[in-house]
Amino acid sequence: MKTLKKADIINRNQIEQALTEKKILQLSDHPFVVKLKFAFQNTYNIYFIMEYMPGGELFHHIKTRKRFSEKTVQYYSSQVILALEYLHETLNIVYRDLKPENILMDSQGNIKLSDFGLAKSCAQSTYSFCGTPEYISPEIIKQQGHGKPVDFWTLGCFIYEMIDGRPPFQNTSRQGLYQDILENNIIYPKHFTETAKDLLTNLLVTDPNQRLTIKEIKKHQFYSLINWDYMMQKRYDAPIKPVLKDFGDTGYFEEASNKIQETPQNVKITQNDAFDGFTYRGVEITQVIKEEEEEDGKK
């Protein structure tokens, strides 16, 4: 469950973002995008009830293993690529916040994109300064306007972090970090293969128009062993499978994230009107229980 305080949303002028996130989640129907089950509100908060992903964040699995094998990187990045392809070509959405913390793992070891708080329609270029600092693209820093290619930059950062255990750009100074990104100061340690380096150098390109497209990425030598239809159908065995006591096991989540912390803040009645129609019921609660029991039974 994701909880957002209405007062914070209003104070940060993020009402449109919250409603857009709900709309995207409501519309999404893809194997590698998290599903919205319910959305509701009370006087103080809005709530998103998503399908439960007991494997937790992919970030946890990267840190536990220090770094992934190239085969594991190919597997998980290919699922992300298929999700981005769906967002770009079917929903015409730019994701803008790809990072290991926003990728969740299911009980079978497959992953799904979550957290669409920064996602936006691709109808026209957008100029918002947003994203995770280490993953932020040159065009966002320059505030020149950005579109779908921003997701290919963050894809490159994501692939690099899986291979190395750290993002490609690191600096204790925010200004220094942005300068490194603008100057494309990337170091590839010895364990990066030539094929991986070729893919990354064609994703982490300063000029967004020169980055690989989805079609070009899927045809790259790095993914030569991936059958994209098989991957879409989840016909491969996942390289990582969470060890779970039961489907409700929360062992892969930080303790703090298991607690609902609600500090009521007053919201004016007129401001509450902005959230009219937020409630959404995707499925009956009995169906949710049935799906969870089926997942539990697969173990």
Automatic annotation (TrEMBL):
InterPro entries: AGC-kinase_C (IPR000961), Kinase-like_dom_sf (IPR011009), Prot_kinase_dom (IPR000719), Ser/Thr_kinase_AS (IPR008271), STKc_AGC (IPR045270). It comes from the Eukaryota. Residues 1-223 form the Protein kinase domain. Its EC number is 2.7.11.11. Signal peptide: none annotated. Keywords: ATP-binding, Kinase, Nucleotide-binding, Serine/threonine-protein kinase, Transferase. One of its GO terms (cellular component) is cytosol. GO terms for molecular function: ATP binding; cAMP-dependent protein kinase activity. This is Protein kinase a catalytic subunit, putative. It comes from Ichthyophthirius multifiliis (White spot disease agent).
